[in-house]
Amino acid sequence: MASWCVRAVRQSYNIVAAPALVRATPRLLCTAAQHKSPGSASEEESGAQKSDQSAAEKALTEEKAQLETQVKELSDKYKRALADTENLRQRSQKMIEDAKLFGIQGFCKDLLEVADILEKATESVPKDEVTAQNPHLKNLYDGLVMTEIQMQKVFTKHGLLKLNPDGQKFDPYEHEALFQAPVPGKEPGTVAAVTKVGYKLHGRTLRPALVGVVKAP
Predict the structure, then answer these.
(1) Paired strand residues for 160
(2) Low-confidence residues of the chain, pLDDT below 70?
(3) Are 127 and 135 in contact (CB under 8 A)?
(4) CB-side exposure of 162: number of CA atoms within 13 Å?
């Protein structure tokens, strides 16, 4: 009887304790899950942060490359603009200087005709008649010579120089050949005769000298 009571008590204990064990098992699983889940969440958050950081770094790198390209393009444009401005300034300065030097070019051309007439008038006076016995002719001749000398001084003052290339080598930039003829004792290609003197204005040929050139026989 006593042994049967012991078995009955044990069975009743097992029956009573079993639901508690069953109820305890989910709690243990939940507790284990709770202990495990913070680590997994941290790893996921860390991975997400690294991914976001990589994307941000990539975006910044691309933006940096774009900005560097824009800076280079703007720098090139700025340098080209400076070069164009400097070239324009130099051209404008050259135009101003040329205008100052050659602004009187048309006026000088008109005066050359006057100088030619004055020179012809001086040369047409018979030199053997320019004597004290002929004071009127002498005074006229002296006046013409003085006027011609003064005109040449004014021409020289303003950069206008006479070209009289008699005996010089023919230069197509300064001379205009009217004829060619063999001349004994003179080198071919040289100027044998000057029909009309030329003029240069500040080194630029204003009127070429009209000449005859020696030709090889």
Answers:
(1) 201
(2) 1-49
(3) no
(4) 18
